[in-house]
Design a protein that fits this description.
By secondary structure, this protein is mainly alpha-helical. It has helices spanning about 10-15, 20-35, 45-60, 65-85, 95-105, 110-130, 135-175, 180-195, 200-230, 235-265, 270-275, 275-290, 295-330, 335-350, 360-370, 380-400, 405-420, 425-460, 470-485, 490-525, 530-535, 545-550, 585-600, 635-645, and strands at about 570-575, 580, 605-610, 615-620, 625-630.
């Protein structure tokens, strides 16, 4: 393997801690101090530079322990890639190698990175055919591929999280049956297959989420309809039930709207960056969502407006690009003009692919102003262009650092204004501000990872509980493990990590409370644990028909036709503390939540006598409880015994 690619590894792996330009300068100076150039550094020399110069520089931004760990990660990757010979040589890699690397992202043609890469590849082919140097284009292409690889890995983590939640929801609504349930099942199967293959299917995820939202609303709304139709509650109870159902439906709508709004932020990110007015309105909608007042209909209207704004922006940028092209065509064929024409072609291809070329147009306008200014000679124009490019590098780097873009916006605006007045600026000051934010973000990531480790470790102490809380915590723990393994994160991935942590820590507190309650009940009441827990139940430990026979004096033998017994009145199918089938009256809802505790204690059959009602519940092989009640045990045995026994 040629060593020419090794000097790019620190930039690629440490660019979230120190500015890429600063890392390039460190490696360049270190190479010169060793009487060589970066492209000729071998693995041993690169490791020495990492341990000395790079480690020293990192300590200006982050604690020494973190700097040491990150340098060790680079050295480990350096050793691995040297042995496996998988690191591409930027000096020798050509357009063909770049095309090979881009093939695995062909499905994601709507990504801004993919749109820019297509434009860049088109220009690189032309440049290569003309015998021109394509090293800078190839390097930018490799950087784009690295960003897409990061986006793909982050997307797979998010998709796995969505898939787990969809599967959990499907188990709740499966008993409803119907076309939507079958569609949901098919989509979940598609997503599971895609996840195994490392492929993202965002459209399928969105469709599945929309279906689950619809089904869950139907499930909640059916409660009031059933109570009204059957006249099972009085007016005060009906009002209370309606209020509870409305609150749950509103919570579902808020959850759905929040997911939709987050998706819009990712999909229209380039447009929001380009239009401060739209970004401000998007932030306002996020505030409404946090306040619990955002409805899905408002998000749908916002999507339509963003789509129209994007179409208008594409048309406007195309017109602007044509004007710039006409002016550049009349300029002398200098090196700067040639570079501008390459950028022009990349922007043109980006727009033709449906992507916005906001950054490219800004750079092209700045280049055109510098090259046509009568007050600047060639040397002054080149210096101005270099300063403008570095300011753009600072702005791009700040987008992935929490809080950095807002912190740096005034300074960047002031620097550009100074350049417009003909004054020189020092971008190093901006990099210093950004690196301070980078250091804070790196420390935050360390804290996130430590919190994730704590949640995962604590989950192991309660994972034997069978309740919905523990199941939800288990899914979150799986997500945290996957997020923990990600490298440097985008702003979206970091936000998702923080949200997952907050939810997991809340679930962990609930699981601990349930675990303590189970321990206290078991230690206090021993074999009669659930009796103490429920305060009304007298349970049998047997499984199958034996338990029911003991409770009601029924014969153990149940006719084969019992397997087809329909659910009788005053009977419920329950799982995870949630009623899947049956009327949601107060008593059934309370007992459904207590059955979740029974599962945690490993119980399968329960019976109770309280007030004027007798109750029985039995769990089936799928973990679902069949719960029934009647005025007395004889009526219960006659009306619901066979149905319950199917569990």
């Amino acid at each position: 393997m040629s060593p020419s690619a090794l000097h790019r590894l620190p930039v690629r792996m440490l660019g979230d801690l120190v500015s890429p330009r600063a890392l390039e300068r460190i490696v360049l100076d270190a190479a010169h101090a060793r009487n060589t150039i970066p492209e000729r550094l071998d693995a041993a020399t690169m490791e020495d530079i990492l341990k000395r110069e790079v480690f020293k520089r990192l300590q200006l931004s982050v604690p020494a322990a973190l700097a040491k760990r990150r340098v060790s990660d680079v050295i480990e990757q350096l050793s691995k890639t040297t042995q496996e010979r998988v690191l591409p040589s930027f000096a020798e890699s050509g357009v063909a190698e770049l095309e090979d690397g881009a093939k695995r992202f062909g499905l994601y043609f709507d990504w801004p990175e993919a749109q820019r890469l297509r434009g860049l590849l088109s220009v690189a082919r032309q440049e290569e055919e003309a015998g021109k140097d394509t090293a800078m284009l190839v390097q930018e292409g490799q950087d784009l591929i690295a960003r897409m690889e990061r986006r793909l890995q982050e997307g797979l983590v998010s998709q796995a999280q969505d898939l787990a939640e969809l599967q959990a929801t499907f188990r709740r609504v499966e008993a409803m049956g119907g076309k939507d349930v079958r569609r949901l099942e098919n989509l979940i199967t598609q997503l599971a297959d895609a996840q195994k293959q490392g492929t993202l299917l965002p459209a399928e995820v969105e469709r599945a989420r929309n279906i689950t939202f619809k089904l869950r609303k139907q499930l909640e709304s059916s409660v009031v309809q059933t109570l009204t139709a059957e006249g099972l509650v009085d007016a005060p109870q009906m009002a209370e039930t309606q209020a509870e159902v409305q609150a749950r439906v509103l919570a579902l709508e808020q959850e759905h709207a929040a997911r939709q709004l987050a998706d819009l932020g990712r999909e229209f990110g380039p447009l929001l960056h380009a239009r401060a007015d739209l970004d401000a309105r998007h932030s306002k909608l996020k505030n409404q969502q946090h306040g619990g007042s955002l409805l899905p209909e408002a998000v749908d209207a916002w999507r339509a407006e963003l789509e129209a704004a994007r179409d208008a922006a594409l048309g406007g940028q195309q017109t602007e690009l044509d004007n710039i092209a006409a002016q550049i065509a009349g300029l002398p064929n200098t090196a700067s003009v040639q570079a501008a024409r390459v950028m022009l072609d990349v922007a043109r291809m980006t727009l033709s692919g449906g992507g916005l070329a906001t950054d490219e147009l800004r750079e092209l306008n700045a280049t055109l102003n510098a090259l046509t200014s009568p007050d600047l000679d060639q040397a002054a124009a080149e210096l101005l262009l270099d300063r403008q490019r570095e300011l753009m590098d600072v702005e791009r780097a700040a987008r992935d650092v929490p809080g950095a873009d807002m912190d740096l916006a005034p300074a960047l605006e002031a620097a550009r204004a100074a350049l417009a007045r003909g004054e020189d600026v020092d971008p190093a000051k901006l990099w210093t501000l950004l690196e301070r934010r980078m250091g804070e973000a790196a420390q935050q990531r360390e804290d996130f990872d430590a919190r994730a480790d704590h949640v995962v470790n604590e989950y192991d102490t309660v994972r034997h509980l069978a309740g919905e809380t523990t199941q939800r915590l288990g899914r979150l723990a799986d997500s945290l493990r996957a997020q923990r393994r990600l490298g440097p994160m985008s702003a979206d991935a970091r936000e998702n990590y923080a949200q997952t942590l907050a939810e997991a820590e809340a679930m962990l507190q609930e699981a601990r409370a349930e675990y303590r309650a189970a321990q206290e009940v078991t230690s206090t009441f021993g074999a009669d644990a659930l009796s103490g827990l429920l305060d009304v139940f007298d349970f049998g430990g047997g499984l199958g028909t034996e338990g029911l026979g003991g409770a009601f004096g029924m014969e153990a033998a149940i006719p084969a036709s019992a397997s087809a017994s329909p659910r009788p009145n005053d009977a419920w199918l329950v799982q995870g503390g949630v009623i899947l089938e049956g009327v949601h009256d107060a008593g059934a809802v309370q007992l459904a939540s207590l059955l979740d505790q029974a599962s945690a204690l490993g119980l399968r059959h329960l019976s109770a006598q309280g007030g004027a009602l007798a109750w029985v519940a039995q769990q089936d092989a799928q973990g679902r409880w069949r719960l029934a009640r009647a005025p007395n045990e004889a009526s219960l045995s006659l009306n619901a015994g066979r149905w319950v026994e199917q569990g």
